[in-house]
Amino acid sequence: MTSLKIYTQFIEKNLVRQNDLKNAQVARKMDDQIDLLTDLISDLLDVTKIQNGKIQLNESEFDFDQLAEEIVAEQQMSARHKITFNHSQVGKIFSDRHRVSQVMSNLISNAVKYSPDADEVIVSTKLVGDHVRFCVKDFGIGIPEDKQKKIFEQYYRVSNAKEHTFPGLGLGLYISSEIIKRTGGRIYVTSNEEKGSDFCFEIPKSKNVQQNA
Ligand code: ADP
Question: Whose CA is nearest to atom 12 of ligand 1?
Fold first, then answer.
């Protein structure tokens, strides 16, 4: 996939240089599709790992505030919405940096995706006892109450006319919830149809907490 991306970007650059902007745009679209395919492969691999009980946490100490800031900045690059980040001093935590960042990105990109008519997404962090909480609030289509538990299941997508217009497979939240469960934490949502959703996860701040959990 990496070579495919490099070749596509090479073609795009050459087309721009030749002032063939129409075909350069096609190459750009190919590049975007490669990103989607890469994400899909990575999701399917994660599902396989979960099913085989092989999703391992690679834990270390890292700065939670810095990670949240990085992920917000990264998501802001592709989002039309203003992502407001309500800072809080959480400090260092002991967990799997890569997997936690994956869940943060999933929640923020969903918030953006499912609120096409809104222009803001609010991310906040908080220290709650010996856990850290990360929340993403959107002002989008929301989720009917009877579907709120199901969205964390594999391949589940809320299906009414509106949702069908959003691309996706229904794997992101399943993977996120398995990661959070593995850390000894919890993931949950409060939502109102037509008003928006508030997705949060809470994970133990240190290893001792996890062992006691
Ligand atoms: P995908 O977005 O690929 O369908 P997810 O597992 O991330 O998969 O989400 C599962 C389903 O939960 C989505 O199809 C959508 O119906 C619903 N959902 C997730 N996040 C939101 C949100 N922020 N607002 C409204 N619905 C959401």
Answer: 151
- 115 shares a domain with 207: yes
* Among 138, 130, 123, CA closest to 68: 123
Assess whether 46 and 134 both reside in one domain. no
Q: Atom of ligand 1 at shortest distance to CA of 159?
A: 16
pLDDT per residue rounded down to tens, the chain (213 residues): 889 999 999 999 999 999 999 999 999 999 999 999 999 999 999 999 998 888 889 999 999 999 999 999 999 999 999 999 998 899 999 999 999 999 999 999 999 999 999 999 999 999 999 999 999 999 999 999 999 999 999 888 887 656 667 878 889 999 999 999 999 999 999 999 989 999 999 999 997 665 554
**Range of 45's domain?**
2-51
Residues 35 and 64 reside in one and the same domain: no
Q: Distance, CA 122 to ligand 1 centroid (Å)?
A: 17
Total domains present in the chain: 2
We report the CATH number of the domain holding residue 120 as 3.30.565.10
| 151 three-class SS | helix
> What is the CB < 6 Å shell around ligand 1?
110-111, 114, 138, 140-143, 151, 156-158, 163, 168-174, 197
Residues 148 and 114 in one domain: yes
Q: Indicate whether 46 and 71 sit together in one domain.
A: no
Residues 6+ apart with CB under 8 A from 159: none
